[in-house]
Design brief:
elongated, two-stranded antiparallel sheet, alpha+beta, 8 helices
Length: about 220
């Protein structure tokens, strides 16, 4: 089983997240990703028109150099609903939810369910983004939070550890050898079958040698 699917026993702590970030920035380019979105509004004449605006759509993540597979697994490690709830509750201490505890419980429950299978690091990264955004005073819109976390997770999952070239060459050679032996064996069996249908008195000297050699290998 991949280590990615093995959950952390405890939620990712602030200190652990900082350590992970420091190591990640040594080998990865992590940058905000913005996309254009069309929205409806009214012009100065009161007519409905579409305008374009730029919105935050997660983080673009690209390797600067070969990345340690252990680091990559740690970054991709999936969250659990309980861990997601911890991180969302912590975010609410910075960006308060103003519609009551019962509604907040529903929001946390729904987000935790929607984020199953997403990297815990991507969720903490999203929380950090909102926590540091001074234009946002209250708990973020749930659809926007999902978009950023899921897009960041998708960018992370597109990264694959590089394989050693020599190791890959050896692997290809090892995989090809059994196939070559199989094809050779098939040709020999076909020749043996054709030879068996031919009277022995009509066998050539080479056919006799071939039959005797196959008999010794059998």
């Amino acid at each position: 089983m991949s280590q990615i699917a093995i959950y952390r026993p405890q939620p990712l702590s602030t200190e652990d997240f900082r350590k992970l970030e420091a190591i990640a920035h040594d080998t990865l380019d992590i940058a905000l990703k913005n996309v254009d979105e069309l929205f409806w509004t009214t012009d100065e004449y009161g007519d409905r028109i579409q305008r374009k605006r730029s919105i935050m759509a997660g983080f673009d993540i690209a390797p600067k150099q070969e990345i340690n597979p252990v680091l990559l697994e740690s970054l991709k490690r999936q969250t659990t609903p309980r861990h997601t709830a911890v991180h969302l509750t912590r975010l609410a201490a910075h960006k308060p939810w103003g519609r009551g505890e019962e509604a907040f419980s529903v929001i946390v429950e729904d987000l935790a369910r929607d984020l199953i299978g997403v990297s815990e690091w991507a969720i903490v990264k999203t929380c950090e983004h909102y926590r540091k955004d001074d234009t946002i005073k209250f708990f973020p819109d749930t659809a926007a939070f999902l978009r950023i976390a899921i897009e960041t997770d998708r960018s992370l999952k597109n990264i694959a550890p590089k394989k050693n070239a020599n190791s890959a060459d050896r692997s290809d050679a090892e995989n090809s050898r059994p196939q070559e032996r199989t094809q050779r064996r098939k040709r020999r069996v076909t020749r043996m079958c054709k030879l068996a249908l031919k009277p022995k008195d009509c066998w050539t000297r080479w056919e006799k040698r071939f039959f005797n050699a196959m008999g010794e290998k059998a």
